[in-house]
Write a structure and sequence with these properties.
Helices cover 27% and strands 24% of the residues. It has four helices and nine strands. A hairpin with a 4-residue loop joins strand 4 and strand 5.
Length: 226
């Protein structure tokens, strides 16, 4: 169930006719468009294009709020390229949208970009998060901080990440962020679970065990008589 709005800031009113082969317009006259199915070659836009533009604009707005919170000046030429896909789910019985956003933040360093993107993800609370080399420009500490923030603040999210590192990132304590890995080689994909990493303290004990003192092995031969 969707959360009820505490305060209504704005309400848009639109009128649409004819479905994907129709037209739509806003009540204030600011928008008046023809609609056509994707790939039909007919004049007009489609709901996926409109969604991509609207969602990207909201994403930039959310990052602007996050930048103010973190004391970062949002670039005036910040841009978002959206790829909105329409497809089938549940064995072809239902339809769904999938969205991929490519964010451009000129003039910001990797740490600043990381803070803004993480803040937006936490605000959105997605059920599925696809990361395409999202931490490639970060140093090792930054990669750990990025994944730890997602793990701590989005407990219900499923994360799929494209990486080129030989080893998946781990937390500062040495535990795995991911539970499985898919290796792709020669056109074949193989999924296997990641072996859980032991805590640093236990690893140290196993690799550098303390010597056993002789007195630990001495047992008294006296038996108490009843």
């Amino acid at each position: 169930m969707a959360n009820k709005l505490d305060t209504v800031l704005y309400t848009a009113h639109t009128h649409t006719t004819g479905g994907r082969d129709g037209a739509g317009k806003a009540s204030d006259g600011a928008l008046d468009v023809k609609l056509s199915p994707p790939g039909s070659g007919k004049p007009g836009t489609n709901p996926e294009q409109l969604f991509g533009i609207g969602y990207s604009a909201c994403f930039i707005g959310a990052m602007t709020l996050a930048s103010a919170k973190h004391g970062i000046k949002m670039p005036q030429d910040a841009a978002v390229d959206a790829s909105v896909s329409l497809g089938k789910t549940d064995g072809g019985t239902a339809y769904a949208l999938a969205v991929t956003l490519s964010i451009t933040l000129p003039g910001l360093d990797a740490v600043q970009k990381q803070k803004l993107v993480v803040a937006r993800i936490i605000l959105q609370q997605p059920g599925l998060l696809f990361l395409d080399e999202a931490t490639g420009a970060l140093d090792p500490e930054g990669k750990v901080a990025f994944h730890q923030a997602i793990k701590d603040n989005c407990p219900d999210v499923t994360v799929i990440s494209v990486m080129h590192e030989a080893v998946a990132p781990r937390s500062a304590a040495g535990t795995e962020f991911y539970h499985s890995i898919v290796l792709i080689a020669d056109g074949v994909a193989t999924k296997k679970p990641l072996v859980p990493t032991l805590p640093v303290e236990l690893t140290t004990i196993l690799t550098q065990p303390r010597p056993v003192e002789d007195k630990w092995l001495r047992f008294s031969r006296r038996l108490k008589q009843k």
